[in-house]
Amino acid sequence: MGPLKSLKIAEFAGIGPGPMAAMALADLGATVLRLDRVEPSGLGIGKPPRFDILLRGRKRVALDLKTREGTALALELIERADAVIEGFVMERLGLGPDICFAHNPRLVYGRMTGWGQTGPLAQSAAHDINYIAISGALDAIARRGAAPTPPLNLVGDYSAAIYLAFGMVSAILSSRETGQGQVVDASIAEAAAHLMTHAFGMAAAGVSSGERGTNLLDGGVPYYESYLCKDGKYVSIGAIEGRFFNELLTRIGFDPKTFPPQRDASRHDEMRQAFACKFLENSRDEWCLILEGSDSCFAPVLSVTEAAEHQQYAARAFFREIDGIVQPGPVPAFSLTVPQTPSPPQTDPYANAAEALGGWLPADRIKQFYRSA
User: Fold this and answer.
1) Predicted local distance difference test score (pLDDT) of residue 44
2) Which of 36, 82, 128, 157 is the catalytic position?
3) Strands 83-86, 325-328: parallel, antiparallel or unpaired by DSSP?
4) What share of the chain is helix, strand, coil (3-state, %, to 5)?
5) In DSSP terms, which residues pair with 238 in a beta bridge?
């Protein structure tokens, strides 16, 4: 059932990183109950609910938190929870940390925030690209001389989601030891900066140039790069260490003794051109036959659809088909407390509400609420 099977978590409905954190916890066995708002929510991108797979692995109920009855039921659930997740200002609904702690002193209150709960920008609206912009991460992602490239919402939103899940589990361990709950403030801007810890060290040491697209890991060197193949697809190489670099050269048909020296920056343009011409000689899949599985630090650049079919994932049975949708399985892998395959998203928060609340409230209380709702 997963290593977190003893945890009960209430999730106030949100978008993006909040549901990602809840999914990560549910994937590892936590019982997560999503409390949806009565009014429509979300980004409004027209995606059918069954494809919103961030909502997998948990049951849902719709509560009108603007009513006294809805708030009272939410507080009853909180009394029985180890933690809550929220991504909005819950104080205005009478469900802020102080009120929740009064009902459950050991509660962990997980807040998914953009800028953080304090500071001059705390109340300002923004999205992923804005949060990572102040962290140094966005500035670093681009080719030399090009504008910064948004890295989807992986560096900000979804990294912060995992930090929130990690922080909540840490706080729950503390709560079980001390009996005292606390607020976990997972700031997207701070999570992105934390991911850049190594880059800050490199900058302080004067190792990085300060100009994007000119450094070791940002496309600045020809041996850590993606290259176009004959079929219009791409391969990646990351042969940083000398022995891996020589392995790559030998396997693709270059003589390491006559090839430009790896660390000679004055010959990197020559080296890059040689690699570019070489990889155009074969298709991506032909290069896979030559290089994949060797110590040349190689991998094909795959689309989302192709990724699920790759032999490495297949060998570990990582991708799962859930309700007809192929998707990543739980992460990480465990040798003993193996998580089960997640259930598909519950598409209707009004359906089976009594069942969803069954593990939380007595049957007579559930019947009472729905008679009064």
Assistant:
1) 47
2) 157
3) unpaired
4) 40, 15, 45
5) 224
How far does Cα 61 stand from its chain's mean position? 25
Residues 60-82: b if buried by 16+ CB within 10 A, e if exposed: bbbbebeeeebbebbbbbbeebb
Which pTM does this prediction carry?
A: 0.94
Q: Which of 103, 127, 194, 310 is catalytic?
A: 127
Number of neighbours of residue 92 by Cβ within 10 angstroms: 10
Paired tokens of 17: 């990183």
Angle at the Cα of 40 from the Cα atoms of 322 and 108, rounded to 5 degrees = 70
Domains within the chain, CATH numbers bracketed: 8-195+343-372 (3.40.50.10540), 224-312 (3.30.1540.10)
Which among 35, 37, 239, 133 is positioned nearest to 124, based on CA atoms? 133
Handedness of CA 263, 265, 267, 273 (dihedral sign): positive
Catalytic, 103? Answer: no
Six-digit token string for 368: 């009472």
Task: Return the half-sphere exposure (C-beta side, CA atoms, 13 A cut-off) of residue 306.
Answer: 9
Q: Is 268 a catalytic residue?
A: no
Residue of 34, 8, 18, 28 whose CA lies nearest to 348: 34
Q: What is the pLDDT of residues 97-125, one digit of tens each?
A: 999 999 999 999 999 999 999 999 999 99
d(CA 162, CA 152): 16
Alpha carbon 25 to its chain centroid, in Å, reads: 12
